[in-house]
Amino acid sequence: MNPTPAQRLADLRQAISRAAADNGRDATAITLVAVSKRQSAEAVRALAMAGQRDFGENYLQEALDKQQRLRDLDLDWHFIGPIQSNKTREIAAHFDWVHSVDRLKVAERLSDQRPATRGPMSICVQVNVSGEASKSGCDRDALPALCRAIEGLPHLRLRGLMAIPAPTRDGDDPRAPFALLREAFTQLVASGHDLDALSMGMSDDYPAAIAEGASHIRVGTALFGPRSPPL
Ligand SMILES: *Cc1c(COP(=O)(O)O)cnc(C)c1O
What we know:
This protein is an alpha/beta fold. The protein contains nine helices and eight strands. The two termini are 29 Å apart. Residues 35, 37, 58, 80, 164, 202-204, 218-222 line the site of pyridoxal-5'-phosphate. The site of pyridoxal-5'-phosphate has 13 residues, from β8 and α9.
């Protein structure tokens, strides 16, 4: 028999607690973002009923439709996908967090377009921790200047960093890319930034991310099962 969403959530929460305990960490310091892209509003509702509050989406139109159908629930929505500049207005209006800011132009637009009624939007800068193997994310060299600039924007609150490491090959240490992100985070904090978010780890690698200090893990498949292909 397939596990129910509530069972999957309970199993995942237990695995998170184990990974936290193995590393001397407090599991309550780890926020689970349930990645609901290409999953139905009903599947999100079932998890919400089981106590899940944070949901992550990649595709704007799909996310807006789902939010509309779930507007009776009090959920926190995280935008985690690539951002085209012409989508920033809707993202600024309908999300609590954006994890995937990788350039100043997008940050400036999100700040300018953030509705006054919503308070500052929480932002993570997406960092390239995989060098040539990845095309997305800000280069680590450019990170300090981007973070300084974002901190000057009035309607954003810079919370931390996010990464999606390129798939590791056999023999690679799965923790290595997460350690790079943690080091970048530590350097920013040492240079005076007040940060509290390290968004890293997905279904296949969240234990390694927790070992390296993840504050937010973004898990889809392990919670919802396989998703339908992108539209
Ligand atoms: C799809 C996605 C996830 C979740 O991936 P799973 O392997 O299904 O857990 C996490 N983060 C981002 C940015 C994604 O696009």
